[in-house]
Specification:
- By secondary structure, the protein is mainly alpha-helical.
- It has three helices and no strands.
- The longest helix is centred in the N-terminal third of the chain and has 36 residues.
- It starts with a helix and ends with a helix.
Length: 99
Amino acid sequence: MLRFEQRLQQRRRNGLRPLMWLRFLVFPLTLLAGLAGIGVLVLALVVALLLAGQLVMMRRFLNSPTECATWYSGFGVPLFVLGMLASAFALRSIVAGPP
């Protein structure tokens, strides 16, 4: 029974892995394309650099999620939050217009 549960857990994890990468790549890349398209290239570059750092950390996290959860929360999540902050500055500059 234990072997069956281990196989089932492994199948669930392997089945979710492509969805995790899809979620992690599609939404930020859509945001980058939008930022670059509206002319906020500097902030789009900042978000791209933060995304690259997160990609490296996400790879380690997805290989062993239970062991690396605390590590990713400490280092990967702040990069995500900084990316959201840069995106908010970009959107604010669009709404407010040039200074």
